[in-house]
Amino acid sequence: xxxxxxxxxxxxxxxxxxxxxxxxxxxxxxxxxxxxxxxxxxxxxxxxxxxxxxxxxxxxxxxxxxxxxxxxxxxxxxxxxxxxxxxxxxxxxxxxxxxxxxxxxxxxxxxxxxxxxxxxxxxxxxxxxxxxxxxxxxxxxxxxxxxxxxxxxxxxxxxxxxxxxxxxxxxxxxxxxxxxxxxxxx
Length: 186
Ligand SMILES: Cc1cc2nc3c(=O)[nH]c(=O)nc-3n(C[C@H](O)[C@H](O)[C@H](O)COP(=O)(O)O)c2cc1C
Prior knowledge:
Blueprint: E1 4-5, H1 12-21, E2 24-29, E3 35-40, E4 43-48, E5 51-58, H2 63-71, E6 73-78, H3 84-90, H4 100-103, E7 108-109, E8 118-119, E9 124-135, H5 143-149, E10 157-168, H6 172-175
Bound molecules: flavin mononucleotide.
């Protein structure tokens, strides 16, 4: 199905809700274009430096991290609930020794503006180009967050990606659950 260009704020609620449920699918690639996908549960959509932006947090241990450092572009893909198993798998195994696209029958569809592809089976897509990155600063991190999420000091790097294209299936709201699904959104 053809996907229509949308303002990047159109599916904000659906995107955040899906991120908090099964996670979103972050796609990167290496310099030769070979794609890799990992699940993300943390991130933010906003506006920085007058540009639409996605902030994603990636630990240096991820294969995705080296791809982001190499290519500096990524796509964020919102999976429908039918892809819950794929999101779980892509959040468990590494692209270092798994072809997750093949294992989960995901289709890499060429993106419009960036090198990493989007995932055809997903419903909403954001294409991003990294504008800035920085590592979490442990000395300014709340102790409770440090203790809960960084007992091994493996701090995330935050990538600030300018959203250079966003598009969605026409029935995206229905496929992602519709307005009644947001009762749990806090
Ligand atoms: C629901 C869920 C959310 C996740 N969110 C993140 C995240 O925001 N940042 C991160 O670095 N890892 C996150 N992970 C872990 C990575 O997805 C996981 O380590 C993955 O296997 C890394 O793949 P890669 O080595 O191919 O990059 C999450 C995993 C799950 C299941």
